[in-house]
Amino acid sequence: MQDFAYEPVYDGAGCQLTVTILGDRDAPREEMRGDAEGAGFRVLECCSLEEFASGSTGGLGDLVLVDCRSMDAQTLALLSRLDVRAAKSGAQMVVSTIMETLDAVFGCFALSGAQILVDSGRAERVIAIGRVLAQVPNLRLRELSETDRLMLLRLTEQVGRMAQRIEGLSGQIFAGRSADGGAFRFESPTQGFTGHDDNQRVPGRDRVPQLPPPEAIRQLIHQRQLRMNFFDADLFADPAWDILLDLAAARAERQKVSVTSLCIAAGVPATTALRWIGQMVDADLLLRIPDPHDGRRAHIALADKTADSMARYFEAIGLTSDREVTPA
Length: 328
Prior knowledge:
The protein is α/β, with parallel strands linked by helices. The protein has 11 helices and 10 strands.
């Protein structure tokens, strides 16, 4: 992949945007440095996590790139502090990690809206930097290879489709939009809301059904997964629905769901699954629940209104709480 080459990027005061680069591995840290400089950022600091924790007293850059593949108490504490500092300063964070440490890393970033990349290569990190640059006004793009241009176009299309699908799903579960017209801001439904016109009330709509037995939901998930034995799995990629099904089964089982488990259930690369989870949390479809035993970790669950809509869906297809489950 050819390098991105941007003119230096500046804030409203005319100062070049800065980047803080943290990572314990020399080669990825230098690669991040080259990508950030190529994108127009001035490097404020580039060091290991330990060096930053023990010696840095300056402010964070406008962008903070972190490479974190091992986890201990000191690292967890540093990541949590970075999250708080970035949220206060408005710094944008891009954090690269691996599946084995995802739960711990995800739990550390509850405030700053960090982009978390899992088992990612350089291309995904460059795209993440590009998403940060997309928020900078009057950005001048000097040179972009045709390969990179197509990559950014695909990302734009993917994010656009993701937002449209989540907005449509949210619109079915929540009533109307708020007065400010935000894409993911919805008013609470009135007590008599049915989701239909007043003259088209649905019998039994006011009764909220229960979720079916978890075994029935798991069987439905298993049947969906069987398709991949006969067709290309990419034909059926539907992470939002797979996330909802997995969380519905977990709710029926009264089980907590870690973000790592949910990424696996989504059936897409973990970085893509995290984007879906983040947007669904922002749309109030899902809840991020701090672990009561470890405040640096978090679980994901269905919002109550989402669970009600899932129960109504299951009832509509004949999968009800009183149905006996036939072994698969």
